[in-house]
Design brief:
This protein is of the alpha/beta class. The chain contains 16 helices and 9 strands. Strands 3-2-4-5-1-6-7-8-9 form a 9-stranded mixed sheet, with helices on both faces. The protein starts with about 40 loop residues before the first helix and ends with a helix. The N terminus and C terminus are likely disordered.
């Protein structure tokens, strides 16, 4: 079966200063003819569902809400009741099964802790589902760099984590450069393409095959902190909702770099307030899950253990989000008693990251779980576990 494509519905890349926000897509001329104006209910359904999100703030009686929910269940749309797994097993179990529509999830941590690795791996896991799409906006990395990261991730194939087949970024670059050099030396006039190189090299054959399974459902944007505004993100998401029937999960990497216009902020705290309130409103109005990476402030970077109140910006981060996950290196937050008892074992924990759910509107908060980070391959082992050792700041963890 051929894979559906939505390139015609996707907005232009927002890196150009000429268009600060993408324009709504134009209907093809062939669809404007009177004899083709009537469409089946199934064809109109995605657009109708997307349009209904736009009136989410209109007053409705409880009977109307019940009737609309009933219609969704009759159609077989159970998205309001079935969460979308992130693929990080113990995390999904603690947040009610996964991501839910209308929710804003914050992912915080210090630099280099693995926030982008986590978000991109979650986006990959979402896009692996045949009926779901992931929209990943990165203010720090190009689309090509993210693609190369995914190839490295797929080389170890989480959750199998086959490290003996792992492909590092340098390995990938060497393969491409070497094969291009060989094709040049042959002098045949035909240069090897990237896809042919990846398909034919024994180390990259399986990674590219795995990535192609979801390549049409993972949408990447190299966002600009100047022109990729909050409004532009909302417009792009709205168009993707129309094209996919609302089956989109949005990932923002990262929140503090989102541009605001025409709004103006007097300081970073006010800017972050505008952004986080806008992202939460977008999640509610369009009915999509939003996962946003948030950077830590200076005090948080100096602290022994990062917490939600250390995230850069304003207190609106705490108020507006539904789930807040804070990442810390396990070695750095182990109790001194644990380190003194077995220093060799403690050093092994440098490759483990503790995910703490510090806010959870749908369940228990202050829950700790740990995941093994394989940084050279830009991947976590998603088969994590509850933290067994004693951590510092236990008085903040116990509930």
């Amino acid at each position: 079966m051929a894979t559906r494509r939505f390139e015609d519905d996707l907005p232009p890349q927002p890196d150009s200063m000429q268009e600060p926000a993408p324009q709504p897509p134009q209907e093809p001329q062939a669809q404007q003819r009177p004899e083709q104006s009537e469409q089946s209910e199934q064809q109109r359904q995605p657009r109708r569902r997307g349009s209904s999100r736009q009136i989410a703030h209109m007053p409705r009686t409880l009977s109307q809400v019940l009737s609309e929910a009933n219609d969704m269940v009759v159609r077989g749309d159970l998205s309001e009741y079935v969460p979308l797994p992130t693929g990080f097993d113990p995390l999904d179990g603690l947040i009610g099964g996964g991501l839910r529509k209308t929710e804003l999830v914050l992912l915080g941590g210090a630099q280099g802790i693995g926030k982008t690795i986590t978000a991109l791996q979650m986006a990959r896991n979402v896009a692996m589902r045949k009926d779901q799409y992931a929209f990943y906006l990165s203010y720090e990395h190009t689309e090509t760099h993210l693609m190369n990261r995914l190839l490295c991730l797929e080389s170890i194939n989480p959750p199998e984590v086959q490290l003996d087949r792992g492909l590092r970024l340098k390995d990938l670059y060497d393969i491409v450069i070497a094969e291009r050099a060989r094709s040049t030396l042959r002098g045949t006039g035909e240069m090897a393409s990237l896809q042919n190189i990846l398909r034919e090299n024994e180390r990259t054959t399986m990674p590219i095959a795995r990535m192609n399974q979801y390549a049409d459902r993972l949408i990447l944007v190299k966002a600009s902190p100047v022109v990729t505004t909050l409004r532009a993100i909302r417009e792009m998401t709205m168009r993707l909702c129309e094209a996919t029937g609302g089956n989109v999960t949005v990932f923002i990497d990262y929140l503090q770099k989102v541009a605001i216009y025409p709004e103006r902020a007097s300081d970073e705290s006010e800017k972050v307030t505008i952004i986080v309130e806008g992202l939460k409103d977008m999640a509610l109005a369009l009915g999509v899950p939003v996962v946003a990476i948030v950077a830590a402030d200076r005090e948080g970077l100096r602290s022994n253990r990062l917490h939600l109140y250390h995230l850069r910006g304003s207190s609106a981060l705490d108020y507006e989000c539904d789930i807040a996950i804070i990442m810390n290196n396990k070695y750095h937050i182990l109790s001194k008693d644990v380190v003194a008892f077995n220093p060799y074992q403690a050093r092994q924990f440098r490759e483990w990251v503790v995910f703490t759910i510090e806010k959870n509107r749908a369940g228990r908060a202050m829950q700790d779980m740990e995941f093994h980070l394989h940084a050279p391959f830009f991947a976590f082992d998603p088969r994590g576990q509850r933290v067994q050792q004693q951590l510092i700041d236990d008085k903040l963890i116990e509930t």
